[in-house]
Amino acid sequence: MRMKFFIAxxxxxxxxxxxxxxxxxxxxxxxxxxxxxxxETVQMNKDLQIYAQKLDKALQVEENYFQLKMDEYxxxxxxxxxxxxxxxxxxxxxxxxxxxxxxKQAVQEQQLMGMQQELIAPTLDKLxxxxxxxxxxxxxxxxxxxxxxxxxxxxxxxxxSDNLTEKIFAKLGVPYPKELQGxxxxxxxx
Length: 190
Known about the structure:
single chain; mainly alpha; 2 strands; 69% helix; 4% strand; elongated
């Protein structure tokens, strides 16, 4: 009697697990590749480049001032025209200028990253919406990114029928690039 009960429990467990596994459908895509070909990303990169140039221009004035002070100090030092007190004062001034310059460079990098995140957010939202719509329409439980941002493939094998990249391009209204047709395609260099 116990044996029949145990077999019944075992069978119920196997059927439950098997049923749960049958409901999982996994697709994959290459988000970086899609982003590289979206017109919004191309425009974002141009806007970022312009913004970075503006930030660089503002910082260049301070870098030039620092370099001028450094050259002045070096020249006076080589000519032995500095008293020990002047030498120390100029070194302290240069260290302060260098510290201020480094802080401003760090702030500039943060501003650039912030601008990039601000500009990419609508594009990522649009891409996510397309992925969600396709996943729902085709019954996918999970959609994985095929590779990392460094280009390392995280999906080494998968049925081509579960590769949603081309469908996502179509959903976004972006023509599927001819150079991507075929295996092992990579996004363009930006």
